[in-house]
Amino acid sequence: MMPAASRRAKRSATMLAIAALVVAGGYALFQHYRIYLPGIIGQWREPILANHPVVWAQGPATAPAGKRPPNIILILADDLGMNDISLYGRGVANGAVPTPNINAIATQGLNFTTAYAANATCSPSRAALMTGRYPTRYGFEYTAVPPSFAANLAHSGGPSPYPVIYHRELDHDLLDYPEMGVPASEITIAEVLKARGYHTVQIGKWHLGESRALRPTGQGFDESLGFRAGGGMYMPPDDPNVVNAKLPFDPIDRFLWPNLPYAVYWGDDQRFKPVGHATDYFTDNALKAIEANRNRPFFLYLAYNAPHTPLQALKQDYDALPQIRDHTQRVYGAMIRQMDRRIGDVMAKLKALNLGDNTLVIFTSDNGGAWYTGIPDLNAPYRGWKATFFEGGIRIPMMMRWPGHIAPATTPVIADHLDIFATIAAAAGAKVPSDRPMDGFDLLGPAPKRDALFWRSGDYRAVRQGDWKLQVSKRPDKAWLFDLAVDPTEKVDLAAREPQRVAAMRALIERHNAGMAKPLWPGLIEGPVRIDVPINAPWKPGQEYVYWAN
Question: 0.90 cut: is pTM over it?
Answer without folding.
Answer: yes
